[in-house]
Design brief:
The protein is mainly alpha-helical. It contains 21 helices and four strands. The strands form two sheets. A two-stranded antiparallel sheet has the order 1-2. Strands 3-4 form a two-stranded antiparallel sheet. The longest helix has 36 residues. It is globular, with a radius of gyration of 24 Å. The two termini are 46 Å apart.
Length: 560
């Protein structure tokens, strides 16, 4: 726990400094002023550091040099803006030595307990840990996706995790970034809930409660650098911040910056790509006002975020977007064969549909939906009920406000559209609950928040009251399940010896198989390949069907 907390403090300082410097630079370039606080600086820092690591990895490994350059940048920004930082830390000190600060410290201790022990996400043993190690040892290697297709998924979240792994310094890998992002979101949410009784608008308050439910869901696996977790945390931040800007009558610039951040979220996981629908809202106003220079600046920011992700895709897999065969532009010798890509893509879909057989990929929806539904846990089914009812309540509110109140908000309408399109894509592609969990939670709670934000009477009040009661009834098994899980977790792990150092990555029995003049670790049984068994792959079959492009790993791999 101690090392986890110290690493969070270190990550927090660097993200705060780099985020602060970035916001100040953007304000100068765009001639705007963003509404901001420490959480916004930190999230901006996460974004900038992630993109920096992606670019750096194209040329060199993510080790001492990359880290020192990042640290020096943070220190220089702190020094250059030392008066501003003195004021930030003065406010921080004031909060720290108060009941509010005591509460936040309790949050840090709680998350540190869970983030220092417990279970890893399944995919961490399959590829997250190894992918981080590849960042640290080589940066990037041509055709790496051939030796294990998962490496071609190229989640940008693993870039952020890799620079704070610091294996080069400690000889062990720190895996504390998910816990760090959790406490940033949790403190941001709890701070935003202050004064809830005195507000007339509650869109954000209910969305914040959705974030707390999500954090409860992943609490027992907080130590895992899982791409799902990093993605959903950022999705929730963008949504809550979007609603916050609406409630506080923020500027178009604030919305536009969130649209740019949505590009980063997409590079964390393609399943969150529909968050980009939000960009239509600020784009409309910027075009209407003919702010062409600022439009160009936001587009350039989006391109700068997306470019290293696309370049890494090409280098890792030979495809612009993996695993999507619809854009086939390259014929590099390291390109993953289309037949492998198609199988990989099909497996994601059929596993999401719980039919587990790629031969059934084209099974009609009327056949696979009952199978999928039957496979869901009761609390998962109830969550889906809540989302459906929430969509109904949102539609009712929209029609009522438009027809009878003559006022609707474009910012909220576009948010509803984003959430609905995200859930449609999720359901069509791979309806694992965890892939769409943030959207499933936020949609019904946003609808409740909207309902509580306008006066009602008569039949309208009765109707919305029924909707709200049904949503809370449907959601109750979900949070009850994970509260129980957290209690059992504490009972089983309180005596575990991880109060100084966090639990290390899981290991498994491995053997070596040759590929050219290099040997790869593969598990003897199961699907766990440790961060430390390097170079490694979970699947000897994938290694066996690959060959080296030269004498060194740096030359990359290609299919036989």
């Amino acid at each position: 726990m101690l090392i986890t907390i110290l690493s969070w403090a270190y990550i927090g300082y660097i993200c705060l400094a780099i985020g602060f410097g970035t916001i100040r630079l953007l304000e100068k370039i765009l001639h705007v002023t963003f509404k901001r606080n420490a959480s916004h600086y930190v999230v901006t820092g996460i974004a900038v550091i992630t993109v920096y690591v992606e670019y750096f990895s194209l040329f060199y490994k993510i080790s001492a040099l990359a880290h020192i350059l990042m640290l020096l940048t943070a220190v220089l920004i702190s020094w250059f803006f030392r008066k501003d930082f003195s004021e930030i830390f003065r406010k921080f000190k004031k909060v720290l030595f108060s009941w509010e600060g005591f509460f936040y410290f309790g949050i840090v201790l709680l998350f540190a307990f869970f983030a220092s022990r417990g279970d890893f996400h399944t995919d961490t043993g399959i590829y997250h840990g190894q992918a981080i190690r590849w960042y640290e040892e080589y940066g990037i290697v041509k055709g790496l996706g051939n030796v294990q297709l998962h490496f071609a998924y190229n989640s940008a979240y693993l870039a952020f995790a890799s620079i704070f792994s610091m294996f080069w310094l400690f000889g062990i890998s720190l895996h504390t970034t998910t816990g760090f992002m959790e406490i940033v979101l949790c403190i941001y949410v709890c701070s935003g809930l202050k004064g809830i009784k005195n507000r007339s608008l509650h869109y954000g308050d209910l969305c914040r409660m959705g974030a707390l439910i999500y954090l409860l869901n992943i609490l027992c696996r907080s130590m895992s650098p899982a791409t799902d977790f990093g993605t959903m945390i950022l999705v929730l931040y963008v949504i809550i911040r979007w609603v916050e800007v609406f409630e506080n009558k923020g500027s178009v610039a604030d919305y536009a910056l969130l649209a740019v951040l949505s590009v980063l979220v997409m590079t964390f996981k393609l399943s969150a790509a529909t968050l980009l629908v939000l960009a239509f809202f600020p784009a409309y106003y910027l075009i209407k006002r003919k702010e062409w220079k600022n439009i160009a600046a936001y587009i350039v920011m989006g391109v700068l975020i997306l470019l290293p992700y696309l370049l890494r895709n090409i280098i890792l897999s030979g495809w612009l977007i993996y695993p999507f065969a619809g854009i086939d532009l390259f014929s590099f010798d390291w390109k993953i064969p289309e037949s492998y890509l198609q199988v990989d893509s099909a497996q994601i879909t059929v596993w999401g549909r719980c039919i587990f057989d790629i031969a059934k990929l084209d099974m009609p929806a009327r056949e696979w939906i009952p199978i999928w539904w039957e496979a869901q846990e009761r609390y998962g089914k109830m969550l889906i009920y809540a989302a459906v009812i929430g969509a109904g309540l949102g539609l009712f509110n929209t029609v009522y406000l438009k027809l009878f109140r003559k006022k609707t908000s474009g910012a909220i309408l576009i948010l509803y559209l984003t959430l609905l399109s995200s859930l449609v894509l999720w359901f069509a592609m791979a309806p694992f609950i965890r892939y769409g969990l943030a959207f499933l939670l936020v949609l019904p709670l946003l609808a409740i928040g909207e309902t509580l934000s306008f006066a009602q009477k008569g039949i309208v009040k009765i109707t919305t009251g029924v909707f709200i009661a049904l949503i809370f009834f449907s959601l109750s098994p979900f949070w009850d399940q994970y509260i129980s899980d957290a209690g059992v977790f504490v009972k089983h792990n309180v005596t575990e010896p991880y109060y100084i150092m966090p639990k290390d990555y899981e290991r498994s029995e491995t053997e070596k198989i040759p590929i050219g003049n290099t040997e790869f670790y593969v598990p003897v049984a199961g699907e766990v390949i440790s961060f430390y068994d390097f170079p490694g792959s979970c699947y000897d079959m994938m290694v066996s069907r690959s060959e080296m492009r030269g004498e060194s790993i740096k030359d990359g791999f290609r299919p036989k």
